[in-house]
Structure formats: C-alpha cells, structure tokens
Write a structure and sequence with these properties.
- The protein has eight helices and eleven strands.
- The chain is of the alpha/beta class.
- The two termini are 21 Å apart.
- It has helices at 18-31, 51-57, 72-84, 93-97, 101-111, 116-122, 192-208, 241-250, and strands at residues 2-8, 41-47, 64-67, 88-90, 130-135, 146-150, 162-166, 171-178, 183-185, 213-220, 226-233.
Length: 256
C-alpha cells in the first residue's frame, strides 16, 4: 500500500471558496484507489496551516502529495521534501512559488500569445476605458488584490508588487485543465474552434509555467483574439469537480 498526503488550502487563501476547495480535494481522494494501476492508497488529509506541525510529529514517507497550498512556508516544506524524497507532488511547489502575474505575461510573450497590453496596442483607435491593478503574487487574496480604475482616474506609480492590465472589451471566459490528461473544460458556451484554440493556449501556458493542475480567465475580443489574463494553480473546479478529480487521479497511473 502506498501513502498519499492530501493538503487542504488554508482559509485565508480561499476567500469565498473554502468549501469548494475542500470538496475537490475530497473528490480526488475518492478517485485515487481506482486511478493508479491497482495501487491502493492510504490517504492522509491535513490542513495547510497544520502542515509543518504535522510533518514534525509524523516523520514518514509519502509516495504522493496532492496539495492546494499557497503559503510560502508550506510550499518551501514541500519543495524541500520533494528534493529529498522520491515523491510525486502535484502541483510542483516551485512552480506555485514562481506563479506570478508578471511571469505569466512574460511566458505569454515567449509563446507568442498576446497580453492585454498587446491587444490594446493592436487597436489604438479603440479607447481604453479603464485599467486593472492586480497583485503580482497570485496567492494574494486581500480585498485589494485586484482593483479597477477608470481611464479618467490617475494610475498609481508602477511597483514590483503589482501589474497593470488595460481593460479590453470582450467576453470573459473561464477555463480549466489538467495537463497530460486531455481534460479541459469551460463553463462558457464556446464554438468548437474557439474552445480548441483556448485550450491549446492554456495548455501551452500551463506547461511553460510548470503547472499540471490549473484554471484561469481569458477575454475573447470582438476581433476574435484570445487573451489569457489570469492563470491559477489548482482551482476549485466547482463546475466540473468530478471530471477534474478523475483527471488528476489519472496522473498517478504510470505510463505504459
């Protein structure tokens, strides 16, 4: 029997989504015994805020760790554990630590995908109605981590703690994926060719950011451009929980 550690996200990183985050991890645990080539898992659940104390009092080997951690301390422990033990950890703690919005925009550029700023520059005749000021750290869940300013309001001085995205017109759509499994989902009704383009871009960006389990937001512009504006590690998958959990569990199956 193998041992799996499943770690719930701390409430301060799940404003309004604590129950949904808990439910998706529970669903992953329920799917695991059938998702790994006959292996049966002894599953241990722990809360992120209790992880360090639990690890100190329970020094044991874990074959698999699936987590929703966002705190620097928990992610650093996971990184150290992964460096010192043979263990599959989803998502990579180093990838979660590095998942900033500025790095996402740099990755979009390296892949040849447009950022919100690129879209605004492509259409200079369309007035920018406002700006989104977002914390660079995607784990920031404070009330002011995302703010909107109209174009007539003065913008704050640029800082390394935040990024500024121009507001671009279009339909905001959500997307979800689990890399390497073929699982993609959007709760929005999209034409097949648009969905295929969006999922292909999302997969490429998640791969560039080394995130196996991801979700995010994109804008579909009136000019049929697709602009990814946010990429998050391990969302709650509220609208596709069971299917996403099955895809996550399938990643525990060794390739043939």
């Amino acid at each position: 029997m193998k041992t799996a550690l499943l770690i719930y996200r701390a409430p301060q990183f799940s404003p309004g989504s604590t129950d949904a985050d808990r439910l998706v991890l529970n669903e992953v645990g329920q799917q695991m015994p059938q998702g790994s080539s006959g292996d049966i898992y002894n599953i241990i659940y722990v809360r992120e805020e209790n992880l360090l104390t639990f690890a100190e009092n329970n020094p044991q080997h874990f074959d698999v760790i699936i987590h929703l951690c966002r705190s620097k301390a928990a992610l650093q422990w996971l990184s150290d554990y992964g460096n010192n033990h043979r263990c599959l950890i989803l998502n990579s703690p180093d990838a979660v630590l590095a998942n900033t919005r500025s790095r996402m925009e740099a990755s979009l550029h390296s892949l040849g995908f447009p950022t919100a700023g690129d879209i605004a520059r492509l259409h200079p005749t369309l007035p920018v109605k406002g700006y989104w000021i977002k914390a660079d750290d995607t784990s920031d869940s404070s009330p002011l981590h995302v703010r909107y300013r109209s174009a007539s309001s003065p913008l704050p001085t640029a800082s390394p703690e935040s990024i500024i995205q121009p507001h671009i017109e279009g339909e905001c759509v959500k997307f979800y994926g689990v890399s390497g499994t073929g699982f993609h989902f959007s709760p929005n009704t999209l034409p097949p060719h648009t969905a295929q383009r969006l999922f292909s871009m999302a997969d490429a960006l998640a791969d560039e950011m080394h995130l196996d389990i991801y979700g995010g937001d994109a804008i579909l512009t009136p000019h049929e451009e697709i602009c990814i504006i946010d990429l998050n590690d391990f969302p709650s998958f509220s609208s596709c929980r069971r299917e996403a959990a099955a895809a996550i569990a399938s990643k525990l199956t060794p390739p043939n």
